[in-house]
Amino acid sequence: MAWMTSILKLTCLLFATTHLFTIPISAQSSPAPYLRTPSSRQLSWHRLEFYAFLHFGPNTFTNEEWGRSQTLPDIFAPTSLDIDQWARTFSDAGMAGMILTAKHHDGMALWDTNTTTYKIGNGKWAKDRVGKGLDADVVRMAAQSAKKFGLKFGVYLSPWDIHRDPAMPKTQLSGTAFDEPQIFGNSSPGDYNEFYSQQLTELVTMQLGDGEKVELFEIWLDGASGSNTVQTFDWAKFRDIIRLHQPDAIMWGHQGVDARWVGNEDGATVVTNWHTISRTQDQTRYNEAQLQTGVRDGTYWTPAEADARLRSGWFWHAGERPKMADALMDMYLKSVGRSVNLLLDVPPDTSGQIPKEDLDVLLKFKAQRDAFFGLRINPSSLIANASSVREGNYKLYGPLNVLDSEGSTYWAMNDNEKTGSLVVTLNSLHTIEAFIVQEHIALGQRIGGYAIDAFVDGAWKTIVTGTSIGYKRIDRPSTKVKTNGVRLRITQANAAPLIHTFQVLGMKH
């Protein structure tokens, strides 16, 4: 076919032309970092992509979301707790980790804390377990199960504490051992920041049953509050505690320190997403729209995380049903597919297990993802050529680097080149389903415009256009085309672009 012959000639021409300028490797210089770059812990966190949220506690049994009822610890009574089942479910579903609500807004602690009487350890369920020689520290048990099934583990510790907030009624606790001093608030007696710091310290220094330290990959410092009580949090102190004891843990907050809110609870972001912002946790808050987009060339590397719910609520409620696998796939493509990590809440029910219908949906979702990524065209059968290669060094910066599976390789142009293209020749005719493009973000986020073309009927046809790329961009063309050649064009960048990955997904003809 004439058009197949044309693209093969073009490929050969590009290959020959770019190789004319090859110079010895010893003369090469590496690209310099561009503005802000991720820390090593952030870079590792980007690669996790998809993990679970676990909202579990008294609200599970009171049919609440924020725990205003302030019930006695006896309310926490799972009938057949199986935390291994949680971890097994998430592992089977292809999730990288799980984050547990060690203390939600209600204030009841799920671990054996020394800071308060308001903990599940003072309820009948926990006392019965301890009497049988069993562990009743749910946080420690969850950390153990995560390790057993090869998952990362993190904790959520709510700064707002209804149990300590004088503006929140607690009629059921009056006259009991759980009627504790109301120290939440700047005008309240006592030091809530010290109280919170003690709880945080307990969690970041927690040990497993064998004495091994629990390693946390993320700590959620939620900023939500449903009270008029004003409490100024000592974020600097909290950060110091975490950095001292868990230096590899990501601190999540509205706008950092390490990761920011995506601006909604839908598991999605807008099509343009920058990994940087220009405010800290201590400064005026960005609004939802600003958080979704971020700030190009911002002051701080603070990438977004998209939190979302499998069901309507964060905690399990009997009348709710899980989203379907198709909806989860759409959510995934609008979060992970737009360079944002996806944190999906999967709440255990009153038995203390993940409901079977939720488990089934997660497995169907996993099967959909596997089928989708299984369409990746074998890179060993592809030919890649570039408009330019950095100082002619094909080994370090050549176009074939975008096809391999190495974590540190990439295609690069010279420093003065901010636009360019990659041509990938397929081994046969394919119907294109999707593309995956990744920047080498270890050296910063640079690209602000790109397009992907397919060679159709003897000419290039643009089938995808976009703005930011960042850690990962998954694009599905609105119209499917048959081709044996595709081209990635970088149309705008603030520094020489570095492309880590260019994958083509499609069906062979």
From TrEMBL:
**InterPro entries referenced in this protein's UniProt entry, alphabetically:** FA58C (IPR000421), Galactose-bd-like_sf (IPR008979), GH (IPR017853), Glyco_hydro_29 (IPR000933), Glyco_hydro_29_N (IPR057739)
Gene Ontology biological-process annotations? fucose metabolic process; glycoside catabolic process
Specify the signal sequence span. Answer: 1-27
UniProt keywords, alphabetically: Glycosidase, Hydrolase, Signal
Recall the GO molecular function terms of this protein's record: alpha-L-fucosidase activity
Task: Tell me the domain of life.
Answer: Eukaryota
Which parts of the sequence belong to the Glycoside hydrolase family 29 N-terminal domain?
70-364
Domain (F5/8 type C) spans 384-494
The broad enzyme category this protein falls into is hydrolase
Q: Quick check: keyword Lipid biosynthesis in the entry?
A: no
| EC numbers | 3.2.1.51
| Pfam families linked to this entry | Alpha_L_fucos, F5_F8_type_C
For this chain, the family text in UniProt reads: Belongs to the glycosyl hydrolase 29 family.
Entry protein name: alpha-L-fucosidase
